[in-house]
Amino acid sequence: MQRIVLDTCVLYPNYLRDTLLGLLDRLAKGGAEQFAAEVRRRI
Questions:
Q1: Tens place of pLDDT for every residue, the chain, 43 residues?
Q2: Domain count of the chain?
C-alpha cells in the first residue's frame, strides 16, 4: 500500500499534494481497500 502511494507521489506530485491528506485520512480510518480503489481511479 505504501509503495502505491510513493510511486504515485513520484508520478503525480502536484496532484497528490492536493489530495494526499484526504486519501491518508481514509487510510487512517481503516479504509485501506477503499483507499486502493481511490488511487486506481485517480491514476
A1: 566 666 665 666 667 666 777 777 777 776 667 777 888 888 7
A2: 1
